[in-house]
Design brief:
Elements (H helix, E strand, L loop, with lengths): L39 E5 L5 E5 L11 E5 L4 E8 L3 H8 L4 E2 L2 E8 L2 H12 L1 H15 L4 E7 L5 E7 L7 H11 L2 E6 L2 H8 L23 H6 L6 H4 L14 H7 L10 E3 L2 E9 L4 E6 L7 E5 H12 L13 H8 L33 H4 L2
Parallel strand pairs: 2-6, 8-9
Antiparallel strand pairs: 1-2, 1-4, 3-4, 3-6, 5-6, 7-8, 10-11, 11-12, 12-13
Helix pairs in contact: 3-4
């Protein structure tokens, strides 16, 4: 029997070549499970689809084995991804498909004929997706076929589509069934799910999170960017899916905790030297930047949050401190010295420019040297 490594590429997405999406590290593998017999195992399929099946035949399974599992109708082929105690924790995160309140079954380890038929079904997925997109265009439906996944026995296919509203695809199902001679199942996905299935590289230089480890999509709002003092630029805040980046929520709790005791920033500070207006905040360093009335933003003064609270308390009492900072502006100077503008020093296009070769001196070969000049 072929090992999983020999067919790994065949079970993967044709676009990304990545079959181990949402990989799970079994950090409980050292703990021996007391319910190995008739236990539930996690089986993964193409891309991000996973489900849980009961080992009713007490097969000697291990992670990486290719198994034939119960489906409706027929059987499907998948790869065992998690076993043991970690399965119970995984089932709390993912939806478990039950039949009459019971887990579906693992029939057997996949035979060589099962694997060959499975690989033939996978090879038809891209061609089926292109043809289905043409059918959708001919029927003038406002939807997009994002991906196609064949069942292991090639009797059924799942068509993943994207649509802004409700779509009547009853006629589409009939046409697809007649063209491909299979049972058709339609599943609607969003823009984030499509990006996770296609994959790609984010602006951070790494694979996008939704195609590697994320399985739950939490709503992201512009308040996440505002609380982190980020520029509300749609081009920078949007990911490859066209929605707000999921990573905007990763450090949000840290910023919310850091600015929990911050004073309000919409109140100008009154001193004997004049009014100072809020410019920006450095939340993690705990500082506010102010500029005096009538000055340009370049003449900013960095003030600790503790000092801002003190000045606001004095202003509420009708008092004005002599200076904005207790000492000379050493705090602002140190903060400015920590930043160096290196833009332009390492230009990304410097390798595209042709190199300037030094000009070689032209030698006149027709001119004969004067031998009498050397005889002196």
């Amino acid at each position: 029997m072929q090992h999983v490594d020999t067919i790994e590429r065949g079970a993967c997405s044709s676009n990304t070549g990545n079959c181990a999406k949402l990989h799970v590290t079994d950090w409980l593998k050292d703990i021996q499970s007391v319910t190995l017999l008739n236990s539930v195992v996690e089986v993964r399929f193409k891309n991000t689809r996973k489900d849980y099946y009961r080992n009713v035949n007490n097969l000697n399974l291990k992670v990486g084995d290719i198994v034939a599992v119960e489906s409706s109708p027929g059987h499907d082929i998948g790869i065992v991804s998690v076993m043991g105690e970690l399965v119970n924790l995984q089932m709390q995160k993912h939806k478990v498909t039950l039949v009459n309140g019971e887990f579906r079954k693992i029939y057997r380890k996949a035979k060589q004929t099962d694997i060959e038929k499975w690989k033939e079904a996978i090879s038809l997925e891209h061609q089926t997706m292109i043809r289905s997109r043409q059918i959708v265009s001919d029927l003038k439906l406002n939807m997009k076929i994002g991906d196609v996944e064949y069942q292991g026995d090639r009797t059924k296919a799942i068509f993943y589509y994207i649509a802004d509203g409700r779509v009547d695809f009853r006629e589409l199902i009939k046409v697809l069934a007649e063209n491909f001679h299979i049972r058709v199942e339609m599943k609607q996905i969003g823009a984030r799910q499509e990006a996770g299935r296609i994959g790609g590289i984010g602006p951070c230089g790494r694979e996008i999170c939704c195609s590697t480890w994320m399985h739950n999509f939490v709503s992201v709002t512009t308040n996440s960017a505002r609380n982190q003092e980020l520029s509300l630029n749609p081009q920078k805040l949007a990911g490859q899916c066209g929605k707000l980046k999921c990573c905007l929520n990763f450090e949000l709790a840290t910023y919310m905790d850091a600015q929990r005791n911050f004073p309000p920033s919409n109140i100008p500070l009154e001193t004997e030297m004049g009014l100072y207006y809020f410019l920006k905040a450095d939340i993690l360093n705990g500082t506010y930047s102010y500029m005096s009335q009538g000055n340009t933003p370049s003449a900013q003064i960095v003030v600790p949050v503790k000092r801002v609270k003190e000045i606001q308390r004095l202003n509420r009492q009708g008092k004005k401190p002599e200076k904005l900072l207790l000492t000379d502006e050493t705090f602002a100077t140190k903060a400015n010295e920590s930043f160096h503008n290196v833009v332009g020093q390492d230009d990304l296009h410097r390798f595209d420019r042709p190199k300037k070769h030094p000009r070689k001196k032209k030698r006149n070969f027709n001119r004969r040297p004067n031998r009498n000049q050397n005889k002196r």
